[in-house]
Amino acid sequence: MSDHPGPAGAREWRPAYRLDLSGVLAPLRRGRGDPTWHSVGEGSAIWRASTTPDGPATTRLHRRSDGTVVCEAWGPGAQWSLDGLPALLGVHDRPEEFVAHHPLVADAARRMPGLRFGASMRVWDVLVPAVLEQKVTGVEARRSWRELCRRFGDPAPGPAPDGMRVPPTPAQIRAIPDWEWHRAGVDSARRRAILASAAVAQRLETACELGGEAGRELLRKVPGIGVWTAAEVAQRAWGDADAVSVGDFHIPTLVGWALVGRPIDDAAMLGVLAPYVPQRQRAVRFVEVSGFRRPRFGPRFSPKDYRAI
Residues with Cβ < 8 Å from 211, sequence gap 6 or more? Predict the structure, then answer.
């Protein structure tokens, strides 16, 4: 780490509920090599670099033995990040209202009471990687995210671990030449969706205030942002526990095998999840973290390198 002065600010906050700090923040991480994220000691200290309405920010979070979460912040967006700490850690989530309707879901909920939906309250930082994940493998999407952050994002403020970068801002994204998108492995359809989002990025941030279906509907007004992408953003930006990622390549099959013992499509999945409204995505999350593994019968989907096209 480089030699920097102390944080621009710090905050201690003790939640009135059981909290799995790493589990709540994990959806914001895009693969092990994510330049906007760094964890130390199996998640005992988590560093994040992000954009905010006030500028870039770096935060370092860790939890003390008494349950208090300590957050230090650097950069122009430090105070905004500190103010948003409770929301980030799921203070507005309502897991106590969740009722399990399947034994597997009930068991996961019992074993992981600290797993909550946090709200980053920042659409842009989660929208770009969500678009990059459209119709490609996770390996491809994470590679593109790494390259865009490293080449076009600014260094993380403060004493961030070496190599940490802030996600590229809308202005930085709009300035990327066509050949650099190609070099990063991003095809024209995803590039157009990201550029269209960058053009109205400030307006899209109001989706956090709208929340729920209204927020998702606002995101879907952007060409190239469909139901799946809007749900992926909603889960992270405002902690939408009902936003199911319809259109996902894996989730319907996983939910089907886990809850009804056979593969199903999106329509059938929504039928199975209907009793969980308005917390359908929480049920999906519990299936994902339960340890259940569906049967595998065929070859895995092979990545496609768009840089070679």
Answer: 238, 240
Band of pLDDT at residue 2, cut at 50, 70 and 90: very low
Q: Is the peptide bond before 278 cis (omega within 30 degrees of 0)?
A: yes
Average predicted confidence (pLDDT) for the chain? 93
Domain end marker among 195, 224, 253:
224
* Domain end point (choices 78, 95, 112): 95
Task: State the sign of the Cα–Cα–Cα–Cα dihedral 80, 132, 189, 269.
Answer: negative
Question: How many domains in the chain?
Answer: 2
Which residue bears the tokens 């370092």? 60
pLDDT of residue 293: 87
- 118, amino acid identity: G
Domain limits for position 140: 123-207+219-224
Asked if the model's pLDDT at residue 202 lies above 80, the reply is yes
Q: Is a pLDDT exceeding 90 seen at residue 3?
A: no
CATH number reported for the structural domain that contains residue 170 in this entry: 1.10.340.30
Count CB atoms within 10 A of the CB of residue 49: 30
pLDDT at 5: 56
Q: What is the pLDDT of residue 87?
A: 98
Q: What is the dihedral of CA 247, 253, 258, 261, to 10 degrees?
A: 130
The three-state secondary structure class of 71 is strand
Residue of 102, 89, 97 whose CA lies nearest to 274: 102
